[in-house]
Amino acid sequence: MMKNLLEDINSTLLMGPGPSCVSLSTYHAMSLPTIGHLDPYFIEIMDGIKNGLRLLMGTKNDVTVPLSGTGSAGMEAAFVNLVEKNDKVLILINGVFGVRMAEVATRLGAQVDKLETEWGKVIDVKEVKAKLASAKYDIVAVVHAETSTGVCNPVEKIGKLVAEQGSLYIVDTVTSLGGIPVEVDKWGADVCYSGSQKCLSCPPGVSPITFSKKAMEKIIARKEKVPNWYLDMTLLTAYWGGSKRVYHHTAPINMMYGLYQAIYQILDEGIENVQKRHKEMHEYLVEQLDGIGIKFLVEKENRLPMLNAVIVPEGVDEAMVRSRLLNEYHIEIGAGLGALAGKIWRIGLMGHTARSYNIDKLVDALKCIMKE
Ligand code: PLP
C-alpha cells in the first residue's frame, strides 16, 4: 500500500556525507512549472547554469555542463570519454572513491596502475613524483575531497607533476565543490566533475562536469566511438552548447531549476563567504566535539571542513548512537566505510547544513545519548 508522502515524510537534519540540507528557495524553484527541454527560456536557464558552474569551478572551459545523473555519472563520463583501450591510467587512492575510479577505468579496458595510501592519510606528493618518473601515463586521476575519510588531497601540487608529464588529469570534486576552493584551470585539471547533493545543497541527481580543450581534442580524435551513448560528450555538447541546440535526451528540467537556484544562492552569498562559513563551522564543530572528548581521524592540516571523520570513543556502540540520533533526534550522520567501518563517524557540514545551530543540535544530542 502506498502512502501520501506529503502527510508521511519526517524532515531529518542531514549531517552525514550527503545529501545535505536543501534550502526552501531551492525546493521552491524545483516546484515551478515544468517547461520543454528546448524551450528558449530553458536554454537561458542552461546558459545560466553553465556560467555559474564556470565561476564555482574556477574555469573558462567552454564544455562545462551539468550531466543528468548523480556524481557517479560524472565519474563514468570522465573515464568513458577519455579512456581508450590499453591507455595507461594511474589512479591515486586513499579511500572508497579512488577505489571506485580504478574499477571504472578497468572496466573500460585501461591498463590501470594504482598508487595506494593508507586511508585517513593524505596522498604524498613525493610518492606521486616517483611513480610518474617510473612510467608514462595517458591519464592520472585523483579525488580532491575523499568523502570516505575526510582527507583533502593536494590536487594542485599533483596537477603540476601531471602537467610536466603531459598526461591528462581527472579530478573528482564531488564533495569539495562549493565548500573549499576548486580551481580547475589553476590545477591544470582536464576533467573535473562534482555532484549536486553535497556543498551545492541541491537534491541528488545532477553532476556538474567540465572538460579542457586538451580533453575534448582527445575525445574528438578517438579511434573508436565513446562506448557509452548517454554520456558521450561529442553528442551532449550539441544539446548543451552552440547557438542551435539538438535534442539528445530530455533533461530533468526541475532538477536543473534546483541546481540553478542553488548556484544562484552561493553566488548571492559570495563564493568566498560560503567557503569561510564552511571553515568556521568546521572549527566550531572541532571545539564542541573536543569538549565531549571526541577526536578527529585526520591530521589538522589535511582535514576537510565539510566532511568530519571522527573517532568513535572506546566502548561506544557506534551503530546504536547513529540509530538513536536518527530515530529519536531526527539527525543523520554517516558511518565509516571499508577499513574504517565501526571505527569512525562521518559528520557532514555541507552547504546549508553548515550552520552553528545544527552543530549545537547534534552535539547536544550526542551528549545526551553518550551520558546514558
Ligand atoms: N565521488 C565522491 C568523492 C563521492 O563522495 C561520491 C558520493 O558520495 C561519488 C563520487 C559518487 O556520487 P553519487 O553517490 O552522487 O553517485
Describe this structure as you would to a colleague.
This protein is an alpha/beta fold. It has helices spanning 5-8, 24-30, 40-57, 71-82, 96-107, 125-134, 155-165, 184-187, 213-220, 233-240, 253-269, 271-291, 318-329, 356-371, and strands spanning 13-14, 63-68, 88-93, 111-116, 139-143, 145-146, 151-152, 168-172, 191-193, 206-211, 307-311, 331-332, 334-335, 344-348. A seven-stranded mixed sheet has the order 2-10-9-8-5-3-4, with helices on both faces. Strands 11-14-13 form a three-stranded antiparallel sheet, covered by helices on one side. Strands 1-12 form a two-stranded parallel ribbon. α8 links the parallel β8 (168-172) and β9 (191-193). α3 packs across α11, α12 runs parallel beside α14 and α13 (318-329) packs across α14. It is globular and about 65 Å long. The model has no long low-confidence stretch (mean pLDDT 97). The structure holds pyridoxal-5'-phosphate. Pyridoxal-5'-phosphate binds next to α4.
Topology:
Layout: H1 5-8, E1 13-14, H2 24-30, H3 40-57, E2 63-68, H4 71-82, E3 88-93, H5 96-107, E4 111-116, H6 125-134, E5 139-143, E6 145-146, E7 151-152, H7 155-165, E8 168-172, H8 184-187, E9 191-193, E10 206-211, H9 213-220, H10 233-240, H11 253-269, H12 271-291, E11 307-311, H13 318-329, E12 331-332, E13 334-335, E14 344-348, H14 356-371
Parallel strand pairs: 1-12, 3-4, 3-5, 5-8, 8-9
Antiparallel strand pairs: 2-10, 6-7, 9-10, 11-14, 13-14
The structure holds pyridoxal-5'-phosphate (PLP).
Pyridoxal-5'-phosphate (PLP) binds next to helix 4.
